[in-house]
Amino acid sequence: MDRICCTKGQFWSKRSNNVVKHLRSMHDATEDDIDEFKKKLVSSRALKNHGSGAWECQECKKLCPSERSLNTHIAKEHVSRILDPAEITLASRPSSPIASLSPPKKVQCQKIDECDVIIEKTASAPGKPKEGAGKMKCPMEDCGEMFSTREKIAVHFR
């Protein structure tokens, strides 16, 4: 389980929205502060989950934690528009609509320092199952056997 730390204080939460609300209410954070927090969060996720720097879309400057998520972003947000056939020309002019159809470049950012990471992994060991949890008792009065499936009870009766 991950927890996200406030960049300015001792607050942490499982959800980034809660940290953003905290930054706004307790630290009077500006939109620039929130944008900086979000960039740091994406960079932290990239380092923790992929061991590398975040990826940046060169068209809109959005940061993504992996190349795969950047490809998804580009496919959804920067799809090429349908061209009017009258606008297509064989001459290669920089202002031609065809020039704008090339996909945005993908640039991988540098890794952030380990001390700048704002995500912590918390140990979350599953609880011990209770004795006999999910088990069925043999319906015979004198028998104390426990079974995990009805098929095992049926085999027990044979």
Radius of gyration equals 27 Å
Terminal CA distance reads: 46 Å
In the sheet with the most strands, the strands line up as 2-1-6
SS field, number of helical segments: 4
Q: Report the sheet-strand fraction.
A: 5-15%
Q: Please state the oligomeric state of the protein chains shown.
A: single chain
The average pLDDT value, as a whole number, equals 78
Helix content: 25-40%
Overall shape: it is: flat
Sheet/helix structural class: alpha+beta
What's the number of domains?
2
InterPro entries: Znf_C2H2_type
Protein name: C2H2-type domain-containing protein
Domain C2H2-type: 136-158
Organism: Caenorhabditis remanei (Caenorhabditis vulgaris)
Task: Please give a quick description of this structure.
32% of the residues lie in helices and 13% in strands. By secondary structure, it is α+β, with helices and mostly antiparallel strands. Strand 1 and strand 2 form a beta hairpin.
Descriptive notes:
This protein is of the alpha+beta class. It contains four helices and eight strands; from the N terminus they run E-E-H-H-E-E-H-E-E-E-E-H. The protein is 32% helix and 13% strand. The strands form three sheets. It has a three-stranded antiparallel β-sheet with strand order 2-1-6. Strands 4-3-5 form a three-stranded antiparallel β-sheet. The longest helix is centred in the N-terminal third of the chain and has 20 residues, at 31-50. The model is unreliable at 96-100 (pLDDT under 50).
